[in-house]
# Entry
Amino acid sequence: MFIAGAIALASAAQSGQVHAAQAPQTLTVITHDSFDLDKKLVAGFEAANNVRVRFIKGGDAGEMLGKLILSRAAPIADVVYGLDNTLLPRAEVAGLLTPYTSPLAAKIPAASRLGSLLNTVDTGYVALNYDKAYFAKAGLKLPGSLADLAQPQYARLTVVESPATSSPGAAFYLATVQELGEGGALNWWRTARQNGMKVTRGWSQAYNQDFSLYGGKYPIVLSYASSPAAEVFYSEGKLKDAPTGNLFLPGTSFLQLEGVGILKGSKQPALARKFVDFMLSGPVQADFPNRMWVYPSVEGVKLSEVWKFSQKPDLKAVPAALLNRAPALTDLWVTQVFRK
# Structure
């Protein structure tokens, strides 16, 4: 009887170990607020890897980076998606990321790769958009240069995001620095703000609240060159043409490369690597464009017909030295523009 009881206990213990081994592990992924992915794709990844993916929305990308830096001693996630080429230098200096290059990164054009710390998931063109109906009704011609945009006539009609908290804002700021030089860009931002240009914390507030298309006061907004296509798509057939247009003024557009990476101190490094691979997989790359209105990083993904309303600006290559100086330039903007 004693032997039988011991065998039963041993069997139960083994059974418990099997169930424990089969219990899903948790992988925590932090993203910016605009992240959107088909839940069926996420469920498929979970089932294939016996894992539960927990997503944390970290605010706009710049805000998310700040949270990751503050919590780096005790990481709040295993994986991060949404840091871009303007924010990567600050993340690198902070020592936030563990190197990992997905085998699928070989399908990404060399010019779009971000190095070993981030695998490029998507690309997008940060650009000024304008409300066509507003300008037609006002009989106002569009500004033709950054100098025009800083004047009261147009500055008071413009809303942009902060370089300190927003990745589109940081991209726009670097575009102005590339065009005008460091001192010229800082002067431009000070003048534009003094003349009425609004600076918000993030894209959602600027586009969905402040932009005149959605009831706000500002008919010029910093967004993406793909936003006109998104407007047509979400009209569900009501619109045959985009209600917004792109304003490709020299020094206002920027090629943004967004990536996914593994946070240093991840509790699930093996699963984190699998998730990075998943983000570069064909189904995910095909799902992104009509959800987040960015271009897939992997070559060969077909875009839907509505993307004909998106445009690509003709841009100069951004010098690596400029990107590497992004953290210092952002700090300058805070002290020389924001706090003035």
Summary: The chain has a mean pLDDT of 93.
